[in-house]
Amino acid sequence: MTVRPERIVVVGASLAGLTAAHALRERGFAGALTLVGDEPHAPYDRPPLSKQVLRGLFSTDTTLPRHPDLAADFRLGTPATRLDLDARRVELGDGSRLPYDRLLIATGTRARPWPDREEAALAGVFTLRGRDDAQRLGAQLQAKPRRVVLVGGGFIGFEVASTCRDLDIPVTLLVRDAVPLAAALGPRLGGLIGEVAREKGVDLRLGAEIERMEAEAGRLTAVVLKDGERIEADCLVAAIGTLRNVEWLDGSELDADAKGLRCDGYCRALRADGGVAEGVFAAGDVARWPNPHDDGALVAVEHWGNARAQAAIAAANMLAGDASAMRRHDHLPDFWSQQFGLTIKLVGLTEGADALAVVHGSLEERRLVAAFGKAGRTVAAAAIDSARWLPAYKAAIRERAPFPPIEGAVDQPRIRVQEP
Amino acid sequence: MSGSTLFEQILDPANRDNPYPLYAEMRKNPVSRQEDGTYVVSTHAELARLISDPRISSDDLPDPQKFRWTGHPVTDLLVRPVRAEIRKRHRPFIFRDPPDHDRLRGQVMRCFTPERVRGMRAKTQKLTDDLIDKMCGKTRIDLVDDFSYPLPVTVICELLGVPPEDEPQFHGWATQLATALEPNQRGDEETQAKNEVCFNEIADYIQCLIKEKRKDRQEDILSDLANDADGMNDFDLIATAVLLLVAGHETTVNLITNGMLTLLRFPEHWQRLRTEPDLAPRLIEELLRYEPPVHYRTRLALADIPVAGITIPKDAPVIFLLAAGNRDPLRFPDPDRFDPDRPDNRHLGFGGGLHYCVGAPLARIEAEVALVSLVRRLKGVSRIEDPPPYRPGASLRGPRHLRLTLEGVAECC
Amino acid sequence: MKVVVDLNRCQAYAQCIYAAPDHFALHGKEALVYDPSPGEAARGAIERAVHACPVRAITAYPDTDTKVGETR
Questions:
Q1: Which CATH code for domain B1-84+295-348?
Q2: How distant is the Cα of C56 from the closest Cα of chain B, in angstroms?
Q3: Does the interface predicted TM-score (ipTM) exceed 0.85?
């Protein structure tokens, strides 16, 4: 590991891969740099795909900016198919082999397909993850479908619902849980977003699941819910989660499964026996590592901000020489969502939170900051249209400040600690 | 001034031309308590943190001093106390916290549209060209009186819809009212008495203007505010208009003058700006770091705030020494070097957080148009004196005069 | 050109909207939407937006020739 690397291969040509490539060059890596991507597109940005791209605002080309002097060799449209740790070599779908001194695995995730294959293949049934997905769905929305059914109670579902309403398309949003977005925001804030969606004309169904789809001549015509209700619709988007792209690592001896590729705190990939795989690192949605903000629990954080932060740390550590010079990945998870004209931002991890307090604004105004507590400590904060207060709460979360963290502040209601 | 505290030395006009060594001294304690219980924050990390800390309030105007009796009971018992109370309740939004701050500022932002600001670029260029044309044939100019002052003042008048011919009368008002930013002046009886008179005069003037705008609506911000603003009564409207007028006065004057002085001190950058106008946006951001028009702002702690190993106690006055944070070597390598190519220049030249300068987009346009035009057209420019004489203000810091000799003025292209 | 904004970092200061109003917009109070692929003619405006952002959340580079240094 102490020998300076001459050849670096990055598998995964998306946000994490490209960020790592930039970081490697910024840190002076002058050797051969290869990025491997299964899609034919140069690295592109995904968050706009569920919003402005579908809506047809601005350009649909979300190719990420690349430094003019990046000097990377892009192997696009060729998936990696096999990793040979002993030979330090990646094999690609076209049969070529790429030897490496350092390898970054940033293969990310893909959309979880609709479980029924025949239904998934119907015209009018979509998933949304990549640029091509957005292009197809966008074209369908521009053609004004009679009704769009969205399946899935996560942020993508809500963002697409918001876009449909902007385009004045009738939309039904099916959420399996009793409260939407509860996993990320807790029931109280999730419920608030649900209310907003209803006001904007979304037909929001909670506790609803699809029994089967109906079709004519291979085109979706309706869905039938488990409770027997039939909803006519010619477009359906399944936003039911993701699958990690780890299959190509089968047989590599890396500790990878459906939950992700296991790493240590320095972004080093681990072998199934728990040892460090020399020279192999991971970043982005595919990586699962002990999170210092969650008492070292193994987590994968599928967010834009984590992909960038983790890729930068992995790049630094790839060039660090030995472990004593490596930096720990201690990024505090953060994300944003834009829907129905609101900007929702979250920092920290709300999982397991046992308390919530609105610390600025109010639920009624739909302009607020809410802090989340867990066993008396501040673990997360959510802002709705109040982004400028968030850095103060981010600092409190980093310091694991007592909950509630900041008292006596401006624009602060009387603090009432409630269930999240 | 021996025996005076560091911050007193910063306020001392004798140190106005180069406060930066004092700032470096100040930064040795990121947050330092002064004898009077004020806390001065001078390092970038602590400023960046506290500027968006919700326990810091902008509602820090001192209570009015007791009035000296005039002997007229109606004046003493009714008119003045009522006016003072109105003024306090309807103070401008730089001295307010949300939600009131956000409501009032939001009304202004609705009028201060990108389209309107974009439209000011061509007008600024025309005014700039005219002012430089007037320098033709002159061998000596005072950049402040001949250029830096008239340009932004004409621009703000135009944008607000204030007749530029009335400008001379509120020039004095603006200067007087800016004392509300200076902690060593704002509380004293004489300044407050002067400010009271001054505010009443400017308020009467604005009130008349608002009436006119309601009768005869024009394409300007005051017309929009007077006719469309919801939830803004006339007292708020007057306070807001006065704020925009005053804030539009000295700050951009300083930015342009400081810019020219800096370019004269570093002629390689004068040359670069002449030949690479694309440099302007970066150069102006660096200028906002290196010689910002506003050096500090005052605040109030609403709760005990632990920071940098000490605790700022509840109710303590706080001073954000923004210009010191801009020269913090922990944030900006080689901070005393003027370097437009500096990466990641997160300066505090326009403040930050909720109170980030409303006029920033306009100031950027004015500075860019002015500096690019001046370096292109003025030939053989030399300073007659360096340092130039400064205005007394320590917060709104800038030269009172910048006297230059010229060899010539190029034609407008 | 190609543009990306770190919307975790963005605090809706809206300076980009003044610098390049054809390529950045706010929908609602804080939701920034922007053109990820503006034409080369917008370069000056985009550069102004990059430098005016108080939190430096905007990254922009000129389009790179996809043929150079790349293989498929």
A1: 3.30.43.20
A2: 7
A3: yes
